[in-house]
Target: D-3-phosphoglycerate dehydrogenase
Amino acid sequence: MVHIVVADPIHPDGIERLRAAPGVTLDHPATANGASLVDRLKNADGLIVRGTPVDEALLAKAERLRVVCRHGVGYDLVDVPALTRRGIALMITPEANAASVAEHALMLMLNLARNVVPVSAAVRRGEWRVRGQSSTFELGGRKVLVVGFGRIGTRVARLCSAFGTQVMVHDPYLPAGTIRGAGYEAIKDRDAGLAQADIVTLHVPANESTRGMVNAAFLAHMKPGAVLVNTARGTLVDEAALEAALRSGHLGAAGLDVLRVEPMVQGLSMLELDNLVVTPHVAASTAEGLRRMAWDSAGNVIDFLAG
Ligand code: NAD
Model:
């Protein structure tokens, strides 16, 4: 028998998959009866986490633990060296939410292009005259720079192409031939790409080399009036520099699904801005994305423990 602990609520189909697996005993939030997660991990062979950080303190009693699966893609809340020291494997659900996040990036682009949030707010206030005041643009014919051409970036590029947007891709870790082979312009010099793009969309992992990459210099290279979309991680962006660029009008607008500090800090001054749209880290959380992340997390842990 193997014992699997699910730390956070996940889609019921994932729980059913675990329950139905032969030789598995299961502990999930609905059955935890107030016990601390540290104690629940005493007999665990496998762990599934969604938002719970995995660190030394959590692993204190987890002597049998062999695998942790993060429900999602980013594992910035997981202390990987702590797992490595204990010989515990880390898994993710790489494909499960890529389509949802890519659609969210397009949704933000369309919202910003059509000024949807401020215009809708004006209509709710009874201000139909906003109709003559809002300046908007089509995605078709515009240039987008996709930064990071992995699972999500490739999908965003495809969706943008379907709108007739001219797609440029910057990903220094991929051969230019891979990008060109997919039908897009490969941009080696990122700053040159920034200078041409009407829309810049971020799809890179959060790590030491990408932390704060969208700083004042990055923003200054962007074309005046251009739009920034970030559905990757909040730590990529220097929010003070972003706010300054939005306030000065150098940047036309920004759409963020992620913030540097989550949950957000109350009183964040950039949230006053009409040219900023923020969603609360929900790009992956569609019905389909949540189901696939739960289903794949369960399958990963069952398969790993079955050898
Ligand atoms: P991926 O690993 O498939 O692709 C990342 C790509 O970025 C790789 O091709 C890599 O070569 C490239 N890259 C790395 N550093 C780069 C740099 N400095 N400049 C340009 N390219 C660089 O990742 P993915 O699954 O596509 O995820 C992309 C991002 O989306 C991650 O930050 C992930 O955490 C985030 N994400 C967010 C949500 C959400 O709910 N908002 C959900 C899933 C993933």
The pocket of nicotinamide-adenine-dinucleotide is lined by residues 72-74, 97-98, 101, 147-153, 170-174, 203-206, 209-210, 231-233, 257-258, 281, 283-284 (CB under 6 Å).
